[in-house]
Specification:
With 312 residues, the protein is an alpha+beta fold. Helices cover 35% and strands 28% of the residues. It is built from 9 helices and 12 strands.
Length: 312
């Protein structure tokens, strides 16, 4: 870094900013390393791709389908950006400019309105592109108290029509990053502010997003446990048509009954999921989850009785 600053006639901080610009503008991977208290950069070699090819009508149609399915999550500004990209890509396609906007759609009932969170998404995206630490002001759902986290954002992903950012807690001291063992999972709609810092971090090696959620369905990470449930009626058909976890096993018992065994990482999420099937399920294992469901159901009944007027 010292040699680059001297050669370019600028500060070391400017060198870091220029390297970030190169990463963002050219989508190249620049490796960083420190030896004997000196920072080195290396442009990682990659294979050159061939000339750009025009999109086919089928490819353009698929892009428009993806756009329509994600429209309720993007918000108008990001949606227009995606639309411009599709129009540029389709301008010289073999199928010409195609209008498929009315062909696909989504029912966004219960979805979060992300229009006021577009800047948050853009800044998190920029932090990931430039490998920069950012400070987020966050309001958790459980207590509502604003908290500040210095994080290294790793991946933005959607789960049940909600956007999350998987991150690493990044303690910064003297422009150095010390990664914490605590990795926050933040819902984007609860982020109140994102501030990009001048602290750069190395590309997150070893981050296994798929492996992080391999232990069962759901998003809360607790001690994984195996459950076995019998579903009947409409719930049997509904459950058997879907994939709930990578290790699920579904066995048909009769025409309208199935037994499902799968791994769950959170008892709380599992109970909420099972209760959504009303009287059409019966948990077989483990006994602890079964007892928690009985307790929860009893509280629901008691609460509803308190809210009903007396009848004769």
């Amino acid at each position: 870094m010292t040699d680059l600053a001297r050669h370019l006639g600028c500060s070391k901080q400017t060198v870091l900013r220029l390297i970030g610009d190169i990463r963002r503008a050219y989508s190249v991977e620049i490796e960083e390393m420190t030896r004997e208290r000196r920072k080195y950069f290396r442009l990682k070699k990659r294979w050159l791709s061939g000339p750009a090819l025009p999109l086919t009508s089928s490819e353009l149609l698929t892009l428009r389908m993806c756009q329509a399915f994600a429209e309720h999550l993007l918000g108008p500004a990001l949606l227009q950006e995606a639309q411009r990209g599709i129009e540029k890509s389709g301008a010289d396609s073999s199928g010409g400019r195609l209008e498929f906007r009315e062909t696909f759609g989504v029912l966004p009932f219960g979805a979060i309105d992300y229009r006021s969170h577009e800047e948050t998404i853009r800044r998190l995206r920029q932090a990931m592109e430039e490998h920069r630490v950012c400070r987020v002001l966050y309001r958790p759902a459980h207590d509502g108290v604003l908290k500040e986290y210095p994080i290294e954002p790793l991946k933005i992903f959607s789960f049940r029509d909600c956007l999350y950012v998987a991150a690493r807690r990044a303690e910064t001291r003297n422009a150095r990053v010390r990664r914490s063992a605590y990795d926050p999972l933040l819902a984007i709609h609860r982020i109140r502010k994102v501030e990009l810092t001048d602290v750069h971090c190395r590309p997150a090696g070893g981050f296994d997003f798929e492996g992080l959620y391999k232990d069962g369905f759901g998003i809360i990470r607790e001690k994984p446990q195996r459950i076995e449930v019998e579903f009947r009626g409409w719930a049997a058909k509904y459950v058997s048509e879907r994939r709930w976890s990578k290790d699920q096993k579904i066995r048909s018992c009769s025409r309208d009954r199935v037994r499902v065994s799968l791994t769950v990482a959170s008892a709380e999420e599992a109970i909420a999921w099972l209760l959504s099937f009303g009287e059409c399920f019966r948990i077989l294992k483990p006994e602890r989850i079964r007892s928690l469901i009985i307790t929860t159901a009893s509280k629901i009944i008691a609460h509803q009785k308190r809210g009903c007027p007396s009848t004769r």
